[in-house]
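# nightly structure sweep
# worker-07 picked up a monomer target from the shared queue
# config: single-sequence mode, recycle default, output format = structure tokens
# input follows
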Amino acid sequence: MNKEELFEAWAPDGVEWSQWAKPVLFAQWPDTVTPPATTPDWGAPNYLWLPQASGRTVVVADLPAVESVRTGVVLARRGYRPVPLFNTTHGPSPVLEIAPLMLELGRGAVQLKTLSLATSAPAAFLIDANRMNPPTPPSPGKFDNRWVVFPQDFPSATFLRAHGVAEVLLIHPGGSVKEDLSHVLLRWQQAGLRILAATPADSGPRDITVTKPSWFRRAWYRALTAARLRRNNAGGFGAIIPVATSGSRHYGYG
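# output follows
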């Protein structure tokens, strides 16, 4: 498979949800790749409590990167269309190690090719729960590829309701909803969509009320949030943190 075919497996032509899939990581694959055909046994939850996809529910899987991809494949077997929203890039000395995620996206593409998902299958949006929590602290010389999600990365509540969606299921590790994702979920909740949540260890979902995050619906929220991170010229987030040169001087003006 070449990298275009890999992306096509995750975001097929003719599928409305494909417009939200992020292509940046797929663009960083070599021109021709041969991803492993099988995923190692990892004891993935089968989510048998989740009803077969009917279009009423969409899923947001906010789990550690590799686990999120594998959950997307499990949900695809339940009739959901996994949509990768990983808006980060790979570089030298990254603070977020992206290579395992890229490998799993390749394995997932092979798995998805074996399924016959309907073009109308409801979406399961995949993001990385550790997108702002790297094991390596950002420091000069590191490739800072931390990232966040914005409401614009997801369909609006109006779009979802027009497509018959009545509820959103968040699958996450537990605890509070990440602040950036709260900006998305609260908009949906205020528009009348039911928000449910579950962890991979749960036997079913529960209703939740999303807490209002900082700067909710403020015009400058996106600009201020993005200003803390580093954008990549190829799209998404990721750039080298500059190393201060010795002898540099700063002058004040009175």
